[in-house]
Amino acid sequence: LCDLLADLGLDTVEERGGRVFPALPNPDRKGGGCPDPNPDRKGGVPATGSGSRAVADTLQRLLQHPDITVLTSRRVTGASRVPGGCVISGEDFQLTVGPRQALILACGGASYPTTGSRGDGYPLAAALGHRLVIPRPSLVGLLCREDMKGLADLTLRNVRLWINDGATQIFDGFGELELTDYGIWGPIVLDASRVAVPLLASGKTLAAHLDLKAALPPDKLEIRFNRDLAEAPQDTTVAMLGGLLARPLIPWFVARGALDGRRRVCDLTPAMRQKILLLLKDLPLTLTGYRPIEEAIVTQGGVALDQVDSATLRSRVLPNVYFAGELLDLDGPTGGFNLQIAFSTGYLAGKSAATHS
Questions:
Q1: For the stretch 308-323, what's the b/e string if a residue is b when 16 or more beta carbons lie within 10 angstroms of its beta carbon?
Q2: 47 and 25 Cβ atoms separated by less than 8 Å
């Protein structure tokens, strides 16, 4: 992909964590970025602007070819099978795809409708005889039964989240998490949602657990905790927690643990101290649902993979139809994997359709 962009005049730069960005100056992003090393190159990108816009503009240049016709504002509304192929129709057009022609369905999923992806491809694929896995949100926020008011947009770093379905652990992750007025969100929650959403959709509730001091083993946390108590024995419990938790989190933490925040730490009983330590390492939450698919980053579900030849992305149901992207029952965790799925399946489907006969 980077080679393709470079051939089209857009260089890339790899930053920390293996993240790849367009080589453009970006003062708002840590790590910066680079100016175009060859500004005189024909077709080169502008020296300023949005990285994502530069990528989109560069890819659009691929379509500026005399053999390519791009029709915009022509929504496809239906599809049907005919002998040897299929018919794709819209409000003011009809296109017949014959036996020696190829059709690629790359309509996206049902998430992020502002990008133009509204789930239109599912009824088209079904009309052509393909079996669908029920589309559901993936990489999406999760709802909690507990009262989360007052915690909106509170980011917790270096925390551990694990989720159990009864006695079975279904997820365990470490990283960044955000508390919201409806529940939890953030990178590790998005990854957790991939396994949690199907279970929540079946009507289950799930037990989530937060380790708020995941960087500290229990024994080291206890040593630090006891040291804090000894250094300020007259402090209240709330004041003492200020050295361990983000201040906006403390009132909610105290309420969740049914603690007396005004009690002096010197008056905490051994049982009270152990309760605080336990809550710091294992704060329970109850997951009851998930946010709407319109808020999800990607869609889980779509055209069943056993309906498609994985070597070509050619339909096993209708031989001159190919699939690419999120329309397939294919999704990955955060970190660019879903973009890679889109690019890779698009490349493979395009290459296969170009040699279709």
A1: beeeebbbeebebbbb
A2: yes
Residues 119 and 347: their CA atoms lie apart, in Å, by 21
Instruction: Give CA–CA dist 129/201, Å, rounded.
Output: 26
What is the chain's length?
A: 357
DSSP SS3 for 207: strand
Contacts of 281 (CB under 8 A, 6+ apart): 211, 212, 213, 218, 221
Which amino acid, 207? A
pLDDT in single tens digits along all 357 residues of the chain: 888 889 988 999 887 667 788 887 544 443 333 333 333 333 333 333 467 888 889 988 888 889 888 888 888 999 999 999 999 999 889 999 999 999 999 999 999 888 888 899 999 999 999 999 999 999 999 999 999 888 878 999 999 999 999 999 999 999 999 999 999 999 999 999 999 999 999 999 999 999 999 999 999 999 999 999 999 999 999 999 999 999 999 999 999 999 999 999 999 999 999 999 999 999 999 999 999 999 999 999 999 999 999 999 999 999 999 999 999 999 999 888 898 999 999 999 999 999 997
Tokens of 321: 């139809």
Q: 3-state SS of the chain: helix, strand, coil percent to 5? A: 30, 25, 40
Distances, alpha carbon 323 to alpha carbons 38, 145, 330, in Å: 37, 39, 11
DSSP E strand stretches across 212-320: 283-290, 298-303, 308-309, 314-315
Asked whether 349 and 303 are in contact (CB, 8 A), the reply is: no
